[in-house]
Structure formats: structure tokens, C-alpha cells
Design a protein that fits this description.
It is a single chain. By secondary structure, the protein is an alpha+beta fold. The chain folds into three domains: 90 residues, Rossmann fold, CATH 3.40.50; 130 residues, ATP-grasp fold, B domain (D-amino Acid Aminotransferase, Chain A, domain 1); 63 residues, ATP-grasp fold, A domain (Dna Ligase, domain 1, 2-Layer Sandwich). The protein contains nine helices and 16 strands. The strands form four sheets. It has a five-stranded antiparallel β-sheet with strand order 14-13-12-15-16, with helices on both faces. It starts with a strand and ends in a 16-residue tail after the last helix. 41% of the residues are buried.
Length: 305
Amino acid sequence: MKIAILSRNAKLYSTRRLVAAAEARGHQVRVIDALRCYMNITAHNPQIHYRGEILEDFDAVIPRIGASITFYGTAVLRQFEMMNVYPLNESVAISRSRDKLRSLQLLSRKGIGLPVTGFAHSPDDIQDLLGIVGGAPAVIKLLEGTQGIGVVLAETQGAAESVIQAFMGMKQHILVQEFIKEAKGADIRAFVVGGKVVAAMKRQAKEGEFRSNLHRGGSASLCRITPEERSVAIRAARVMGLNVCGVDLLRSNHGPVVMEVNSSPGLEGIESASGKDIADMIIQFIEQNVGTKESGRRTQTKGKG
């Protein structure tokens, strides 16, 4: 097969591993910077141009689209889909998962456990909003934040009100969530490939920090998850319509709750913690599914909404 990897940096661990895994299985691989792609949008012969050439004859595309380029990156991926190239994750599924509010609403509709979450526009509703999530301490998140950036733990009612007022004053949309104290600064990343949890790791926040993101100094270790946690992760991936994703879970007193479904999860942490060749599993999944559905689409895992 001829596989395109949409990545802005060929030297990143995840990109290098996917290239190596694909080449080891006899495939041709090319890393393509989505921001250098430009498109000819026409009814009968849609094309993608890249640095002066026309990209063609690809069988599959692996999107590694960063949050900061979601709009343009998914537009490029959509163009590949128009050219009947099989997408590891579809553009609509990536867009769905990147919208934090929409993704939580979709998960909620399917009865998947979530932290109690509030969303409001007017500063006049702040006190009632905090009441919805059980008051302080509360977690306040920017809708556009990634990798733990724009996430604040407000430990008192006054602090929570001040932070929310400040964000609203800057015209930022925010979510307010209950603080899951019993999680003790740890979460679980369940890595899903093709409707199965293939590996899981526990991420522990560093001392004095409640965000467990590895980019924030958290540590990762191998984790055995419960059947309920496995089921929640698989269902969350299905709702988002993602074939490959990282589902971030917290262990709460009322069962596992989903914090986020990541459509472009890093491989370094999960491969190091689990010792598994996740990149090879992803390439095998592509091999099994290229050409099995018209236009490379898998209706089995497609979400709604």
C-alpha cells in the first residue's frame, strides 16, 4: 500500500514509529505537512497539491493533526476522502472529538459516565452554575485548551467565581466541572484500535499538581483496567466515530467517567508503559480495512450527531 501520514514534523516519536511500522510491513510511506497542501475542489477530479506536485495513488491516510490546525487539517483530510483514500480516522469524527462541548453532549446522550459539567454564557449565572457541579473545588476549562493548558482548579467558591468572571471577561467559552477528588491526580488513558482497548496506562500528576498530562510533568505506568472501564472506553470511541483514539478516564466514586476522547493520541507514553507495538497494530488495522467499504468508510464505528 501507499500510505500518507499527515504530520507537521517527521521527527516526532509517533510519526517516526508509524513510518517504521508501515515500512516494516512492506508499505510505501510519505509524511506530508497538511499546511503545505492546497486543494483543487472540483466535481469530477478533486486533487491535492503539495509543494508544486499533485498527490495521487494513495491507498490510506493517517491523520496526525494537532489541535491548533484542526480546521485546515480536517479540510485536507476531507479532500483525501473525496479522492477515495481510506482515512484511519474520518475528518468528521476528528472535528466531533475536538469540540469539547459537543463531544460531552454526544457522550451524555449515549449514557456514558461523565463528570458533572456546566456551561453558561452570562456572568449573572455563575453562582447557580457552580451549584450545578457541587460548588468548590471545581475544575474550570477553556474549550480551546489542550494538553492541560487552560485548565484551572479553583479550590474555593470565591476563587471559582473570580476565575470564571475573568475568562468570561476575555470572551472565552468555558466548561465548569466537578472535581473528582478521589482520583488523586491520576487518570487512565485507554488506547482503542478498531473497537478494542489494546493497551492502558495510568498517568499520575506530579506532586502539587492535579493535571496528569505527560506534557505537564506527569508520569505513566502500565495499568490493568476493569471490564466496566474497558466497555466505557470502547463505547466512547464508537460514539465519536473514531477507529483509533485515546480515551481518558477518571476513577470516581460513581464509576469511571470520561474526561476526553483524543483523536490523535501520542504513542510514546503508551508504548513505553505497555511495552506493546501500538504502531504495528494501527498499520495492521489499516491493512484489514482498506478497500472493504466504499470510499474507505467504515459504517460500523461511525458516530452520530
